[in-house]
Amino acid sequence: RRGDAVLTVLLASLVPGLFWLWYFNRYDVRDKEPVSRLMLCMFFGALGVIPALSWEAPFSQLLKASNSLPVQLGLSFFVVGLGEEFFKLVAVYLAVARSEHFNEPIDGIIYAIATAIGFSVVENTLYISAFGLMVAPLRGTIATLAHIAFSGLAGYFLGKARFSSRPLPQIASGLATAAFTHGLYDFLLITRLVSPLVLILVILGLQYILLMAIQTSVKSWQGR
After folding, report:
1. What is the 3-class SS of 136-181, one letter each residue?
2. How do residues 124-154 score in pLDDT, each as one tens digit?
3. How far apart are the C-alpha atoms of 186 and 193, rounded to whole Å?
4. I need a surface site. Which of 38, 92, 133, 185 has the fewest CB within 10 A?
5. Of 187, 172, 160, whose CA–CA distance to 75 is shortest?
6. pTM score, two decimals?
7. pLDDT tens digits, residue range 89-126?
8. Phi, psi (rounded to 5 degrees) for 104
């Protein structure tokens, strides 16, 4: 029975992630990325949870206990947002930096999304294990789409950096964008300054921006 419970938790985390990977991969219409490369991104994204948790561990009590808005603001942006997005960006780099398949700007978005999904699958597994299957639908939609939006926007800049003579400013811009959006989301979530409905609207707004970034990446490469 324990084995069945573990399998159920894993499936509840993995299946939504694979669905979102299929959904966003549809936008890569010219030159699809190999499934093996996408799986590698997910794998490295999953591994990225380990250093992210290690980075956040010294601040865990403050994250749970502090009622100070400035402290929560700093923790949300510079510990959670910057930390998690940095390790996800490193995971993307390790997975695809030398890949010949990274040959279009949109590939940066797709690879970053795959990495974010791998990260979120592990994170969701931990949450579902701790709080039960009742949180699985929320984790598989809102939480996963949040990670996809943050990292997908970083991937937009990563795709630009791939074909730029000055890639580092583009990569830094991507990390800053992902860290800011992630930090803002976490700050609003932790402090409960807004209703859950507003948080959902924030994620939907970020998804709209991500879709615009995808369209811009596709159009920038048309005719080549």
Report:
1. HHHHHHHHHHHHHHHHHHHHHHHHHHHCCCCHHHHHHHHHHHHHHH
2. 999 999 999 999 999 999 999 999 999 999 9
3. 11
4. 133
5. 187
6. 0.94
7. 999 999 998 899 999 999 999 999 999 999 999 999 99
8. -145, 150
